[in-house]
Amino acid sequence: MTETTIVHLLRHGEVHNPDGILYGRLPGYHLSEDGVLMAKAAADFFAGRDITVLYSSPMERARETAAPIAEVFGLTPVIDERLIEAANSFEGEKFEARMLRSPRMWPRFRNPVRPSWGEPYEEIARRMLRAAYAARDAARGHEAVCVSHQLPIWTARLKAEGRRLWHDPRSRECGLASVTSLVFEGNALVRTEYAEPAAALIRNPTVPGA
């Protein structure tokens, strides 16, 4: 008999971002009031489960999402740089559709498969799954939570499921404060699961950011 271990990849809650900036890895972006409620909804979702390990991206919004879970389970979140948001050349800008028609922007869009505007999908998937495997090993026979960001979580899921990594961002199944779970039997990933414990709190699913 092999032991079952579950690693939950939790996307952070909504961020206060009234200017619609693509904030990426910029510091100073915190959860909104609704984002705080989403983090609590995620903690409620995990209550009663066998969570023994809690990892977090170093970004403020991720650490703030991890805080209610840490309180419920009496855990100290471990910061893992591998869970950080993807690097993006549009960081700090307000992305608008008209930018796609601007010749000066075209070099950034020359290779959507890599993608040319940011961290390669393969590198994102590699670091995210390494973080997930580390969480699996630390939580053997139990469950772990890793708080991260939309693109890294979605890319890790695509890689884990053997799917193509390049994609239309509108196709991502990774809502605010959503939970993408990797279920392991021993070292083998046997399935992925998905849940949205904070879905009722999402007022604007297209809020820029990650």
Automatic annotation (TrEMBL):
Superkingdom assignment: Bacteria
One Pfam family linked to the record: His_Phos_1
SUPFAM superfamilies to which the protein is assigned, alphabetical: Phosphoglycerate mutase-like (SSF53254)
InterPro entries noted in UniProt: His_Pase_superF_clade-1, His_PPase_superfam, PGM_Phosphatase
Protein name: Histidine phosphatase family protein
Organism this protein belongs to: Actinocorallia longicatena
